[in-house]
Amino acid sequence: MAEIEVGQAKRARAAYDFDQIALVPSRRTRDPENVTTNWKVDAFEFAHPIIAAPVDSVVSPASATAISSLGGLAVLNLEGLWTRYEDPTAAFAKIKSAAPENLSQVLQQVYAQPIDPDLIISRIKELRAAGIVTAASLSPKLTQTYWKQVVAAGVDLFMIRGATVSAEHVSVDENALNLKTLIYDLEVPVIVGGCATYQAALHLMRSGAAGVLVGFGGGSSGTTTSVLGVKVPMATAVADVAAARRDYLDESGGRYVQVIADGGVHQTGDVAKAIACGADAVMVGSMLARAIDAPGNGYHWAVEAGHPTLPRASAIPTPSIGSFAEILHGPATNASGQLNAIGALRRSMATCGYSDIKELQRVEVIVSQ
């Protein structure tokens, strides 16, 4: 791949975000009614490939049930307010009423409440009682502490999600997370991330992960780039990880690992672009945080926003534009690209001539900077 000279001592390759690429229609078109948006991971099948990210501004036990009824998957953050407070209503209200200049401090305060292991169990059981696919997430650090409670409570899908997750974490702690051993012990499908390179993704796939998250978390509320200087444009990152999946498929004799774009999906067209680059599904936060029934009360923030010493996200205003149902299934009342995400995906697939998600991954793309 061609490289660019940054300076005499450093070279770099070009990389692209979703807003820098576009899909190219083929010679065939279809009616939108003749395409399917179904997505499947392990034994669980969903009507569409949009996953609600494990952030408190989007996923509560109630909203997870609502999103599930609309054909999707919602992931509850087991390090969020729902496992720190029996009733987090006051904590949400405190965030909503905070002055903009004090939001970071308020988030640090409400997330200073320790996690209650009993609430981890009760929240998972609450999701199971609702009859939905029960999905929950922990960071790599706390997975080691709480995974047994998570499995015993009956989780269906478990997500190990961090800004960067590797299969080769170096630590002075002799009990550091051994990803391959843990995934074997969990005995439920495990989705792991984030990562953004071919080699890192390949290592995660070899650990036994059912899916790999592409991106560094935080999304539109994240400040990882300005705080840590870390960023990989999402179109390139997804394509690189999709290449790792292709090679691992051959290496493993046919084991298919789901590639999930976790970040950079802000408008309905970004869903199709992520799939075109090789994703099987997308994980969204800000898109669903705009729902009137989202628990964030008009704000969106990632879990990194409450870090006690180094926040890498901020709470951003997200004015409500409609319900979860309208954001996912419409009807759209404007042309902003924020409503009827599944309808937009269907029409994109039909316009380009493809009938399902796997076929859309073969669509031609162009760079249109």
Automatic annotation (TrEMBL):
Keyword check for NAD = yes
Entry's InterPro entries?
Answer: Aldolase_TIM (IPR013785), IMP_DH (IPR005990), IMP_DH-rel2 (IPR005992), IMP_DH_GMPRt (IPR001093)
Q: Where is the IMP dehydrogenase/GMP reductase domain?
A: 16-298
Query: Pfam families of this UniProt entry?
Result: IMPDH (PF00478)
Please provide the record's keywords in A-Z order. Answer: NAD, Oxidoreductase
GO biological-process terms attached to the record: GTP biosynthetic process
Return the SUPFAM superfamilies for the record.
Inosine monophosphate dehydrogenase (IMPDH)
Q: Which SMART domains match?
A: IMPDH (SM01240)
The Swiss-Prot or TrEMBL record annotates one GO molecular function as: IMP dehydrogenase activity
**Protein family per UniProt:** Belongs to the IMPDH/GMPR family.
- The protein's name in its UniProt record: Unannotated protein
